[in-house]
Amino acid sequence: MSLYGTMRTGVSGMNAQSNRLSTVAENIANANTTGYKRASTEFTSMILPSSNGAYNSGGVQTQVRYSISDQGATTYTTSGSDLAIDGGGFFIVEGANGQEYLTRAGSFVQDKEGNLVNAAGFTLMGYEYQAGVDPTVVVNGFDGLAKVNLASEGLVAEGSTTGSMGANLPSGAAVGDISTTSLVVYDSQGNTRILDFNYEKTAANAWSVEIVDRTSSTVLGTSALTFNAAGDLTTSPATVVANGALISPLAGTGANLGAITIDLTKTTQLGYAFNSDGGTIDGNAPSKVAGYQIDSDGIVYVKYENGKLDPRYRIALANVQSPDKLLPESGNVYSQGVDSGVIITGFAGSGNFGEILSGALESSNVDIAEELTAMIESQRNYTANSKVFQTGAELLDVLVNLKR
């Protein structure tokens, strides 16, 4: 047995325990860091060749492993921009260097430019979104992503372009009978205009609808409606266009009412009195931005004072085959590693991606009791390894003193 080998083994053991204490210290320091993933030190033996007459002691080497796939507890907050992921996946964020990273740290707030950034200064990324149209995802990359920006635009008005009107037309009405309902629409500056829908029976199972601007009495559009014996609408396409360009703008405003496509598919002809479902219309009167909401699918809505929700972005998520092999970076973010697998992007609630929780944060997955236990173990083991080194040094002194 080599005394130098014994001392080197003791030093190896002390270094290994020192590394373990370092991960314990890091875990304890980040016990309250949002989305932090616990680091642990794994030990593997180093065996040296030995002969029958002498044993060469080896040592121990360490490898740090991160429990990235181990989800922390969910805590709820009062901020709608605090986000957590219930299930698999990571938020995609952009650093100051323009590079994208992955993170579970969802403590986002608006910066001075209106971008959502977390406590480490990384900007949340998503796809620009239009109502009813899912963005096209680049599955194997970050192309097409944009910073989620919720900067206030002051007063916002939107002119009407599409709507619907459903009504029951009494089947017992006489030819020439007219029933009327109305719908409020918005011009390009958010001013309201009232459109009257005049239904006139023209024959058995046949009606006409005429859309009239109430202020100017201008006819903006007409359509013939036909029904089968069951009272179901058979006209196809069951739409009528109210051509707002036929009427003059409101005096002094210069605002225009554009062409509005009205869906009539919910119109019926049954043996019941005339009634309307009230209709629906898009667009809105001038309204201030009052806040925003984020749903479980990751759709970010701007909320106006009038209660309207305008979808702006859909938050993108990403994942890899082996999350524990991602490379930790400063700021509680991760980058792709050689052994982590290819980054796949998608949306919350699809595939292996979890749901997004608004008003919630994922806590650190550090267990303080476990870390303190590991600290005591490492302290004792470090002391024991130092004794091995000390004993080897003392025996070496004895060997040197044999010459005397």
Automatic annotation (TrEMBL):
Compartments, as annotated in UniProt: Bacterial flagellum basal body
- Annotated SUPFAM superfamilies: Flagellar hook protein flgE (SSF117143)
Q: Which PROSITE patterns match?
A: FLAGELLA_BB_ROD (PS00588)
Q: Which residues form the Flagellar basal body rod protein N-terminal domain?
A: 7-37
According to the entry, every stretch annotated as the Flagellar basal-body/hook protein C-terminal domain falls at: 358-402
Flagellar hook protein FlgE D2 domain spans which residues? 179-283
Instruction: Give start and end of each Flagellar hook protein FlgE/F/G-like D1 domain.
Output: 84-136
Answer whether the UniProt record assigns the keyword Transmembrane to this protein: no
| Keyword Transmembrane part of the UniProt annotation | no
Q: Which UniProt keywords apply?
A: Bacterial flagellum, Cell projection, Cilium, Flagellum
Main location, first listed in the record: other
Q: Which InterPro entries match?
A: Falgellar_hook_FlgE_sf (IPR037058), Flag_bb_rod_N (IPR001444), Flagellar_basal_body_rod_CS (IPR019776), Flagellar_FlgE/F/G (IPR020013), Flg_bb/hook_C_dom (IPR010930), FlgE/F/G-like (IPR037925), FlgE_D2 (IPR011491), LlgE_F_G-like_D1 (IPR053967)
NCBIfam families given for it?
Answer: FlgEFG_subfam
Per the similarity annotation, which family is this? Belongs to the flagella basal body rod proteins family.
The task this protein performs is described as:
A flexible structure which links the flagellar filament to the drive apparatus in the basal body.
This chain's protein is named Flagellar hook protein FlgE
Instruction: List the source organism.
Output: Sinorhizobium numidicum
